[in-house]
């Protein structure tokens, strides 16, 4: 039994896919030149007034409904006061005491065990700018393009008990955002990032321990590694009888460890007060109901449908529905050729491997759903072998060439001429008399050796079913 129980709560910041910022008309496009997407409003010039972006509110409401939050009919924007060079106004417009939505939940699965993680609140806020530190110039620069970009902050209850659960929660949350098409989920660009609050308490105790907050984790792997390290660090301190210091920490990727950044601020340190330039946000219940009815099929529901409709194993259905583009690719492939289990195997295995190797998303690849279906069909019809299909798949993935053309141009049609195959089988058996005798003496695993020899001779084009049939007959 573990001496300590881990308690984790996550604060996720999701950048909304609006075309303009939350309180002004500046573009939210990523990758522009420094300070190009700025204006007097987002730069905090005297005398300017913020105007709330309705689309950002709509996106926030969609997320709240998707995770079963209670939408508050009245929410208030507040000024969160702190000084930092990339915060031009000297405060961040956020929500505090009266957020957009509260008391939601999200379901996760770790090692086939389901669990519900509570969501404390969802509130809207503006992003800060970005500080760029140059050791070459011995200077720091500020880019305010990101200032004022709309964010949703999604705060979980302290219901998470392990790094694996934290990652599962984040993946589920990101999946919902992607299905709703309100956030691109790009962790490298910072449009989906999180802060993790973590503490340990003796197993069986109700009272929470002193927590540390790990800031700005921008990949699932970093979340996992940072939390694993922090559990080890805090456990060692407690074992030595030392107190945990409440503080903010950063994860050092190169060293694989967290390090102290500053003492943890409490909420009152920010001196929140309602923003006098923004009236309370009053949400029309009819609008909420309209958005609720228009919600798309979400990942959890789609996964259950895939299991039922296509008779897929749950792990495969979970992979296929992890991203909307992947699920759409699967269903389009099945529509072109109704063999869901076979198509699922190709996507979960070969396609996912290619995506991981290349770092591409489904929308970026040359391979189309009907082309994958065509490859599966050609195997079923005996036109190509399963081994050759791997070669065809790689070629189509890389070039987008139609599978039939790849097979024709490269001469990859499966050899199914029984007389030709029989001649090859006879030659292989004649060339390996010792192996033939060992097979007849009971070493049946040598069947794979004989098949391999014929496949080698035919460069993988021999019909494997016919080869096995001929070998079985001749080795009796």
Strand element count: 16
Percentage beta strand: 15-25%
Shape: elongated
Derived from helix and strand composition plus strand pairing, the structural class reads alpha+beta
Q: Give the N-to-C terminal Cα separation.
A: 58 Å
Q: Helical content, roughly?
A: 25-40%
Poorly predicted segments: none
Largest sheet: 9 strands, mixed
Helical segment count:
15
Calculate the mean pLDDT score and round it.
90
Query: What is the number of domains?
Result: 3
Q: Radius of gyration in whole Å, from Cα?
A: 29 Å
Query: Which strand order does the major sheet show?
Result: 2-6-7-10-1-11-12-13-14
Describe this structure in words.
With 476 residues, this protein is of the alpha+beta class. The chain has three domains: 287 residues, no CATH class; 107 residues, no CATH class; 57 residues, Arc Repressor Mutant, subunit A, CATH 1.10.10.410. The chain is 39% helix and 21% strand. The chain has 15 helices and 16 strands. The protein has a nine-stranded mixed β-sheet with strand order 2-6-7-10-1-11-12-13-14. A three-stranded antiparallel β-sheet has the order 5-4-15, with no helix packed on it. A two-stranded antiparallel ribbon has the order 3-16. Helix 2 packs antiparallel against helix 3. The protein is elongated and about 90 Å long. The mean pLDDT is 90.
Care to give the gist of this entry?
It contains 15 helices and 16 strands.
What topology does this entry show?
Layout: E1 4-15, H1 54-66, E2 70-71, E3 74-75, E4 77-81, E5 91-95, E6 101-110, E7 113-126, E8 130-134, E9 139-143, E10 150-156, H2 163-180, E11 192-202, E12 212-217, H3 220-239, E13 247-252, E14 257-263, E15 273-274, E16 281-282, H4 285-293, H5 299-310, H6 314-320, H7 324-336, H8 340-358, H9 369-380, H10 386-399, H11 403-409, H12 418-431, H13 433-440, H14 447-457, H15 464-474
Parallel strand pairs: 12-13
Antiparallel strand pairs: 1-10, 1-11, 2-6, 3-16, 4-5, 4-15, 6-7, 7-10, 8-9, 11-12, 13-14
Helix pairs in contact: 2-3, 5-6, 6-8, 7-8, 7-9, 9-10, 12-14, 12-15, 14-15
């Amino acid at each position: 039994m573990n001496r300590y129980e881990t308690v984790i709560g996550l604060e996720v910041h999701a950048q909304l896919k609006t075309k303009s910022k939350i309180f002004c008309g500046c573009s939210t496009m990523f990758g522009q030149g420094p300070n190009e997407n700025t204006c007097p409003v987002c730069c905090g010039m005297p005398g300017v007034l913020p105007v709330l972006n309705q689309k950002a509110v709509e996106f926030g409401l969609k997320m709240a409904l998707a995770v079963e939050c209670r939408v508050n009919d009245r929410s208030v924007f507040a000024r969160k006061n702190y000084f930092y060079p990339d915060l031009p106004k000297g405060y961040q417009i956020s929500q505090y005491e009266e957020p957009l939505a509260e008391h939601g939940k999200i379901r996760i699965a770790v090692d086939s065990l389901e669990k519900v993680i509570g969501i404390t609140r969802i509130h809207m806020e503006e992003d800060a700018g970005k500080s760029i530190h140059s050791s070459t110039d011995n200077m720091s620069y500020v880019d305010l393009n990101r200032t004022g970009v709309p964010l949703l902050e999604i705060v979980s209850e302290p219901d998470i008990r392990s790094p694996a659960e934290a990652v599962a929660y984040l993946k589920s949350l990101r999946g919902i955002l992607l299905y709703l098409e309100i956030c691109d989920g790009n962790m490298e660009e910072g449009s989906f990032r999180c802060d993790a609050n973590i503490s340990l308490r003796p197993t069986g105790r109700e009272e929470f321990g002193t927590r540390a907050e790990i800031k700005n984790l921008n990949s699932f792997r970093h979340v996992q590694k940072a939390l694993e390290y922090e559990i080890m660090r805090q456990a060692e301190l407690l074992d030595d009888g030392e107190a945990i210091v409440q503080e903010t920490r950063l994860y050092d990727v190169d060293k694989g460890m967290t390090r102290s950044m500053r003492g943890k601020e409490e909420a009152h340190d920010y001196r929140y007060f309602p923003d006098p330039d923004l009236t309370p946000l009053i949400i029309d219940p009819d609008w909420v109901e309209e958005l609720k009815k228009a919600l798309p099929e979400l990942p959890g529901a789609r996964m259950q449908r895939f299991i039922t409709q296509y008779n897929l194993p749950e792990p495969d259905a979970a992979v296929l529905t992890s991203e909307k583009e992947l699920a759409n690719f699967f269903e389009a492939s099945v529509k072109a050729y109704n063999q869901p289990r076979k198509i699922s195997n190709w996507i979960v295995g070969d396609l996912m491997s290619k995506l991981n190797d290349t770092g591409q998303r489904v929308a970026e690849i040359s391979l189309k759903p009907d082309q994958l279906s065509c490859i599966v069909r050609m195997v079923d019809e005996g036109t190509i072998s399963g081994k050759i299909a791997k070669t065809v798949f790689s070629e189509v993935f890389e070039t987008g060439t139609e599978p039939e053309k790849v097979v024709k141009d490269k001469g990859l049609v499966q050899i199914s001429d029984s007389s030709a195959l029989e001649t090859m089988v006879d030659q292989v058996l004649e060339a390996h008399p010792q192996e033939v005798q060992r097979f007849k003496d009971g070493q049946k695993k040598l069947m794979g050796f004989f098949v391999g020899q014929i496949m080698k001779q035919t460069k993988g084009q021999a019909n494997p079913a016919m080869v096995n049939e001929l070998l079985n007959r001749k080795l009796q």
